[in-house]
Write a structure and sequence with these properties.
This protein is an alpha/beta fold and about 290 residues long. Helices cover about 45% and strands about 20% of the residues. The longest helix has 24 residues. The chain binds S-adenosylmethionine (SAM). The site of S-adenosylmethionine has 19 residues, from helix 3.
């Protein structure tokens, strides 16, 4: 089974686009010209932002060269790609908008201070290990009074009551799938699937933060929180399959297993779990926070 292990299939789900569109529409975007999209992936948020504010010049930064390549191709086809900073500046001056993709880490920003009106970060903030380092980097590149807006589906409180059993069934089914694959391989005389002990990471949800912890951390880092709320996204079987196939997720969730096996097992596990649980979609909360630079 060939699996697309990038985040793109999940980020193109209509429910994903809706939850992000609704979030970005709540932001005061009227006089926003310069935007930084942190951990931008293939540029899903950048595209939504341009549909609301076509004049915006957006710099997207991500550590995945593969995602950036997909993003560049996509925006080039639409005539919205800036090849370098000078071209992006020109586009902003002409109010044409566009996107420049840069490879790098979200917490080491190669940009001048006080340059952006808005820094946005879609469903990635939980992936950065040092939150103070990240917030200090964001604070530096924002203009005074500039806005930092992020959302995340990986925080304490993301599971609406009565939905967790589907996740339990998902992991159980994924592990059962791996056992079956392992047995089939061994029966045919091939090496089985082994879980590398040293590579097993800490529990998936360890380190998730609650909304009030995010608010305190932002305040400590000289941000004034303007908005802090929850939005509901319906997660369909396809949502589970596509997010499960995403290597960044699968490698943490099924840590220690080879990446391809982890992705396949979560994709197959989603099919089985939805059938066993007899559901067509379950809700999941997304945390949304917007804060200004003090
Ligand atoms: C869940 S995806 C979200 C992508 C995009 N924001 C979206 O909503 O479609 C997480 C992204 O974070 C990126 N990423 C992870 N750690 C990063 C880091 N330290 N700096 C920059 N990007 C990072 C991954 O490569 C991936 O593209």
């Amino acid at each position: 089974m060939q699996v697309n292990t990038t985040y793109e299939p999940f980020s193109q789900q209509p429910e994903y686009i809706q939850v992000n569109s609704e979030f970005l529409q709540t932001l005061p975007l009227n006089s926003i010209n310069r935007v930084l999209d942190l951990a931008c992936g293939t540029g899903t948020l950048a595209e939504i932002l341009l549909s609301i504010r076509p004049e915006a010049g957006i710099v997207g930064i991500d550590i995945s060269a593969t995602s950036l390549d997909i993003g560049r191709r996509h925006f080039r086809e639409r005539g919205l790609l800036a090849e370098n900073q000078a071209e992006l500046d020109e586009r902003i001056a002409d109010q044409r908008g566009g996107v420049l993709f840069v490879e790098g880490s979200a917490d080491i920003l190669p940009f001048e201070s006080d340059g952006f009106d808005l820094v946005m970060m879609g469903n990635s903030i939980h992936m950065l290990p040092d939150k103070d380092k990240l917030l200090s980097a964001i604070h530096r590149v924002l203009k005074p009074g500039g806005l930092f807006a992020f959302n995340s589906a990986f925080f304490v409180g993301t599971y609406p009551e009565g939905t967790e059993y589907v996740y339990t069934e998902w992991i159980k089914s994924a592990l059962a799938y791996i056992t079956e694959q392992d047995e089939a391989l061994r029966e045919s005389g091939k090496p089985g699937i082994t879980r590398k002990r040293g590579k097993v990471k800490k529990a998936f949800n360890k380190g998730w933060m609650a909304a009030d912890q995010w608010v305190s951390l932002l305040e400590q880092n000289s941000f004034g929180v303007q908005h802090n709320g929850l939005r509901t996204m319906q997660w369909t079987q396809e949502s589970f399959e596509t997010v499960g196939a995403y290597s960044g997720f699968a490698e943490v969730m099924m840590s220690g297993y080879p990446a391809e096996v982890a992705s396949q097992s979560l994709q197959e596990g989603a099919k089985r779990a939805f059938s066993t649980c007899g559901v067509s979609a379950i809700p999941r909360y997304w945390l949304e926070i917007a804060a200004t630079k003090k």
